[in-house]
């Protein structure tokens, strides 16, 4: 269990778990690192999200313009530009790749998980956000409050985008002498560690060809764990 799961707990439980993770993370940072690596993982739902944006803005907008009898030559161009920016924002800000940085020590594993978003994406998004807010204010000044019937959602979204920044999550997996399970998904170079300890489970995404190497590094500290090989994401996550 990591910091991102504390939202489902009561305030006291969540605070206790966050404190436990933070203290354990700092303790592991003081240990000698046996091996470390960074890996960029693509979000499985990212392409699907981009497809939905394309269908909603591109297809839906084109249908609307056609139903209003408007010429699609110039309208198409504007629509495609809007759709392109919508796809870019959806892909790189709302469904970004995840950058993991793992550290293996003799007492456990600690790592960070961070949205892998280029700085230029935030610069552009903030610029578009401020521009969107300005357009909404200008529209309200010219057309009155009625302008916000259509522009209100855009204003709220623009205001949110302008302050976006990469989110980083810290997590740990302390090595335990209690019974647990190690799931190997060699086809995707992934290892899942599950125990009944308070930290629950973590997924370890290995560099290409290094799944066995990572397993050999951690198994001496987890020799009470049962090793189970899986062949699908569904088995891996169950």
Can you characterise this structure?
This protein is α+β, with helices and mostly antiparallel strands and 238 residues long. The chain has three domains: 3-42 and 98-115 and 169-237, Roll (PH-domain like); 49-94; 118-165. Helices cover 49% and strands 22% of the residues. It has seven helices and eight strands, in the order αβααββααββββαβα. The protein has helices at residues 11-29, 46-67, 72-94, 119-143, 148-161, 211-218, 233-237; strands at 35-41, 97-104, 108-116, 168-174, 180-185, 190-195, 201-205, 225-229. The chain has a four-stranded antiparallel beta sheet with strand order 1-2-3-4, with helices on one face. Strands 7-6-5-8 form a four-stranded mixed beta sheet. A hairpin with a 5-residue loop joins β6 (190-195) and β7 (201-205). α2 runs antiparallel to α3 (72-94) and α4 runs antiparallel to α5 (148-161). The longest helix has 25 residues, at 119-143. The two termini are 15 Å apart.
CATH fold annotation of the largest domain: PH-domain like
Helical segment count: 7
Structural class of the helices, strands and pairings?
alpha+beta
Q: Spell out the helices and strands N to C.
A: HEHHEEHHEEEEHEH
Tally of individual domains? 3
Shape-level CATH architecture of the largest domain: Roll
Trace the largest sheet across and list its strands.
Answer: 1-2-3-4
What is the total tally of β strands? 8
Mean pLDDT: 74
Low-pLDDT sequence parts: 57-65, 70-75
Compute the separation of the termini in Å: 15 Å
Rg result: 23 Å
| Largest beta-sheet characterization | 4 strands, antiparallel
Strand content: 15-25%
CATH top level assignment of the largest domain: Mainly Beta
Helix content: 40-55%
